[in-house]
Design brief:
The chain is mostly beta strands. Strand 5 and strand 6 form a beta hairpin.
Length: about 130
């Protein structure tokens, strides 16, 4: 599986961006896909995730502003980000998680050792 993100850029506070993550390869084996972000000097954190069955998870602090979705026909994962704030500035990456252990609950809890593939990331900068 290969993942390629796009859609990042510079936006003013209050603006919106939609990130895309195009998947190719053995995508049938993906159980959960997620969006993560890493701000300068901080650890990477899960933003949102979606299971192959369509169940979604959002980190509490971002509920209502970010929306994760997937277009199975296009093999693409999206992250719609609204009302952006300077603190949303980060490198955003998508990841595909494989195997029977890669459940939404496992991804939420940050379970280690799950088979996964990462994209290269797309930078989002929100100016004040």
């Amino acid at each position: 599986v290969q993942l390629v993100e796009s859609g990042g850029g510079l936006v003013q506070a209050g603006g919106s961006l939609r990130l895309s993550c195009a998947a190719s390869g053995s995508i049938f084996s993906i159980n959960v896909m997620g969006w993560y972000r890493q701000a300068p000097g901080k650890e990477r954190e899960l933003v949102a995730a979606i299971s192959s069955g369509g169940r979604v998870y959002y980190v509490d602090s971002l509920k209502g502003r970010f929306t994760i979705s997937r277009d199975n026909a296009k093999n693409t994962l999206y992250l719609q980000m609204n009302s952006l704030k300077p603190e949303d500035t980060a490198m955003y990456s998508c990841a595909a998680h494989f195997g029977y252990r890669a459940t939404l609950a496992a991804i939420q809890s940050g379970e280690k050792g799950l088979p996964e593939v990462w994209g290269q990331g797309t930078l989002v900068t929100v100016s004040s």
